[in-house]
Amino acid sequence: MNKAKRKSRTPAEIDNIEDRMGSVTPLNFDQETDERQENVGDVHSKNELDDDFPPERVQEAGRTSGEMPDGHTTMDDLTPETLIQEDGARSPTERGHGGPMDKDLSITSADRIGAGGGLDEAEQAQVDPLDGKPWHTKGEDPLSDEELEGDAPLDSGRYKKPRR
Questions:
Q1: Please, which residues have CB within 8 angstroms of residue 53's CB and are 6 or more apart in sequence?
Q2: Looking at residues 74-98, what average pLDDT do you find?
Q3: pLDDT given at position 93
Q4: Where is this region: Disordered (predicted)?
């Protein structure tokens, strides 16, 4: 990126909480806007019951970790494990099925993670510093294009002084 393009572009100001945190749904406690159409005694489908009350939840109903032989937490304990849902849902309004989203791993190519080519942040700073001042120290020349294009990894011996 050349210096003229960088100076002409100014970042957008962060002016509200939605820009900083993403989409935030405000809390609304009005009973008139409650979308649930359920009454006490309504019959629910088996799928809804299985989602809301898995078999281990039914077995441990009303019990706490103090009553369990192995001491593990139950769904009736107020612990982070029970209060923070890890069902794969990406928002409170989405119904999640499966495990936590941060444990869903996939094999990705080097290009997709940014390791495919080009300069990293340090190399870009040496070639084109933001303030326009040279970044390298005295007695050290910035890397040439040939050095940057080399196949040798950066921690190889190509930047070390030769032994005498």
A1: none
A2: 75
A3: 73
A4: 1-164
